[in-house]
Amino acid sequence: QVQLVESGGGLVQAGGSLRLSCAASLRTSAPYVMGWFRQAPGKEREFVGAISGDGGSTSYADSVKGRFTISRDNAKNTEYLQMNSLKPEDTAVYYCAGDPFSSSRLRIRVQDYGVWGQGTQVTVSS
Hints:
The protein has no helices and 11 strands. By secondary structure, the chain is mainly beta.
């Protein structure tokens, strides 16, 4: 069973940048959709963005559009989340997730993703 491991979280000032990585333990013959979600204290886990298996399509939540960029390197089994112009409201635990049943359909619901990482904390100070 594939495992996902996030890294790159930390503390940053408002306006700063961070890049999160998500490494998969196994390479698949057909790369599937990968997503990023986040969960702030007291709030439900929410969709941040997703990328298709071939990296050709992406989708973002309105709250991060224009500031965050998702990419992937299938040769390295790794997905990335580049976060720029960070705001205090971006503070959350960030999770990467995989949708093994789709290579191109970019879904946004938590329940559509069957593989999850353990999460990495991102804190943005004002």
